[in-house]
């Protein structure tokens, strides 16, 4: 499992979202309040953000715990952005992928994270993996379940699906192939946040017309945080939040 968060809005220092709030992502790495599976998120972390004039986000990722990285603390204090996506990781299984398995994953303008686990990994997704072109499998950045989930989302986008549809359909096909999977996905293009609640907690906080935050759990005790029902697709911008029920796989 892991904890993740995305923000869109006026320029802010990364630390304003990730470190300063009383229960920010940094604290959630060792003391999450709502995490149902796992206890400590110390198997890697990452943050991606957008800089003025460059459509491709930058990333900073490491394989160790976020609380031990003083370089991240400096970066979070001085780097400002209008959009970011960050995650702290609790690995589903031991592995040697290290930093490569830490979200956010990226492709072009997109940043992506998966909070959860695929049931029966890796065998359960072998049929879905076989539908991808060999070149796409060979370019997976890690051998973990999240990397394959990201590859499946990317493939749908490349075939012409819009981002919300690609995310929703990917969750549906994985849930059918691997029942009992936890599939909270989080994705942003720097303007819109797309997320799913499927098996774990998801919340959002908005300041209408100004900003939106979507996270595994609230980073403070602001009463305006709203929970996302399980089996739901969320699409959020600075001006609007749309919640759409996701269909259960057919028996």
TrEMBL record:
The record, for SUPFAM superfamilies, names: N-terminal nucleophile aminohydrolases (Ntn hydrolases)
Pathways involved: Amino-acid biosynthesis; ergothioneine biosynthesis
**Alphabetized Pfam families for the sequence:** GATase_4 (PF13230)
The record's listing under InterPro entries reads: EgtC, EgtC-like, EgtC_Actinobacteria, Gamma-glu_amide_hydrolase, GATase_2_dom, Ntn_hydrolases_N
Its recorded reaction(s) are: gamma-L-glutamyl-hercynylcysteine S-oxide + H2O = S-(hercyn-2-yl)-L-cysteine S-oxide + L-glutamate
Glutamine amidotransferase type-2 domain segment(s): 2-251
What keywords does the record list, in alphabetical order? Glutamine amidotransferase, Hydrolase
Q: What is its EC number?
A: 3.5.1.118
* UniProt cross-references to PANTHER family, sorted A to Z: GAMMA-GLUTAMYL-HERCYNYLCYSTEINE SULFOXIDE HYDROLASE (PTHR43187:SF2), GLUTAMINE AMIDOTRANSFERASE DUG3-RELATED (PTHR43187)
Quote the function comment for this protein.
Catalyzes the hydrolysis of the gamma-glutamyl amide bond of hercynyl-gamma-L-glutamyl-L-cysteine sulfoxide to produce hercynylcysteine sulfoxide, a step in the biosynthesis pathway of ergothioneine.
Q: What is this protein called?
A: Gamma-glutamyl-hercynylcysteine sulfoxide hydrolase
Organism this protein belongs to? Streptomyces yanii
